[in-house]
């Protein structure tokens, strides 16, 4: 009988221990989420005059585009789909294809995000990457005035994208502050 009481007590203690660990984990996750939310609220935002000009520019060439915003990133989207893209490694070997959003031959995809400090990525920017089905122009101009940079990505089909649009887009990104 004592053996049974001991086993029941042990199972209750183990159950309580597991419950305590779950509660502790949940509390830590909650604290981490709150800290991340506070950190993202402190991040710089895209200037409104810049956004007005960018929206007008893209709307002029792609009147049916849509604008989506999430977590301090703005995307301008018109006729896109998912492509399977092979990216080379730094040693020149090809990786397995992975899904990537890109434009149809008459579409466009533009992603904009302001980040604190100068750009610290591995790629030298501005640079245009050829993904075979479309090109990606990436720029990251820095603003000393606000101590942030604009990380701008333009996914476009080379054959059907107006050179005037590319020139105006690049100028607007360069002068984002």
**Element string (H = helix, E = strand):** HHEEEEEEEH
**N-C termini distance:** 78 Å
The best one-word shape is extended
> What is the structural class?
alpha+beta
Q: Which strand-content bin applies to the residues?
A: 25-35%
Task: Characterize the biggest β-sheet.
Answer: 7 strands, antiparallel
Integer average pLDDT:
84
How many structural domains in the coordinates? 2
Helix content: 25-40%
In angstroms, what is the radius of gyration?
24 Å
Our count of helices gives 3
Low-confidence stretches: 27-32, 34-40
E-strand count: 7
Walk me through what this model shows.
With 177 residues, the chain is α+β, with helices and mostly antiparallel strands. It has 2 domains: 1-42; 48-174. Helix content is 38%, strand content 32%. Strands 1, 2, 3, 4, 5, 6 and 7 form a 7-stranded antiparallel beta sheet that branches. A hairpin with a 2-residue loop joins strand 1 (66-70) and strand 2. Helix 2 (48-61) runs antiparallel to helix 3 (163-174).
